[in-house]
Amino acid sequence: MFKSLFCLFFLVSTVINAQNKVSSALSEAPVKGGFEMEGYWVWGSSVVKGNNGIYHMYASRWPKFLPFHPGWMIASEIVHATSKTPEGPYKFQDVALGTRGAQFWDGRSSHNPKVVKYKDTYILYYMGSTHPFEEVTEENIDEFSLQSKWCIAGRWNKRIGMAISKSPDGPWERYDTPILAVKPNTFYSYLTSNPSPLIKEDGSVVLLFKGRNYKDDGISNADMSIGVATASSFVGPYTVVRDTPLFSTEHLGEIEDPHIWSDTEGLHMVAKDQRGKITGVAGDGLLAHSKDGIQWEVDPNPKAYTKLVKWDSGKTIKQGQLERPFVLVEDNVPTHIFFATMDGPGGFSKGSKTWNMVIPLAQK
Hints:
Radius of gyration: 20 Å
Helix content: under 10%
Oligomer: single chain
Structural class: mainly beta
Mean pLDDT: 93
Strand order of the largest sheet: 1-2-3-4
Strand content: 35-45%
Shape: globular
Low-confidence stretches: 1-18
């Protein structure tokens, strides 16, 4: 009896005292780091180091005459910026993936980039969408809303695609069709979005993604789910592994913006806890682990980050939004975590400025 109680006490103490490998490593965020652009909403970054030691960031932007949400649905493009250091500041270089006409599956919007390098090839995963209507301008902006024709089509057409290049400077060769489309009667029957790839040493790919399905009315979309697809190589084809999602409102909780990486300890995921079911606070980050990228377990101490950020100016500020986490790994060691962030009290309609920020991760 005493031995059982001691083992139980030891197990509980271990769980309580366990340090989350992300939250315990967060350092001060450099105020002058990251990336922003005058006249644009900037959101979500992915970074890769080039052969010459330069760091290349890929980010989403769209003009500020559009509301932040849902402007990204119909006018986002993926831009390329560089820095000599991971922290930045990053300097705009060019548009990596811009608009290319309504007839293309990604012709109106390219968003949520995730870049990886395999051997001599750079692979840029992203979400694309299109719509068949006239462009939204400052003249017809009063007609634009989440319920407008542009957004109904823009959301419904969201799919995951890919572009490849032999150089981080481009040019990028886009695939003419999505690599992960929707499938009837699944948790991703309505859309696929927010790709997060991991290319293993043998070239095979694990791809986390966000899906939404149709509700029973056959018109509206349900809450977000996170699924996993695999491929024998980055060229595809990509196959969704199972019929049930990894995370959903029915299983573990609704999350968004998953990011997957590997290091010497295995595979890890950081994501936004959409409703707070896992971390206790809606919008905070959660941490999960996996051996194969298919089966995942939430960390015993799941909270990876909060919206409260310590800056190197000495200030601690609660960000209005803190989303799209991306972990930079060098030599199998996580060194920095990047976020899309917004000022203001919280809520997409209440901020006046967005940018991509970065926090160094302390090494132990």
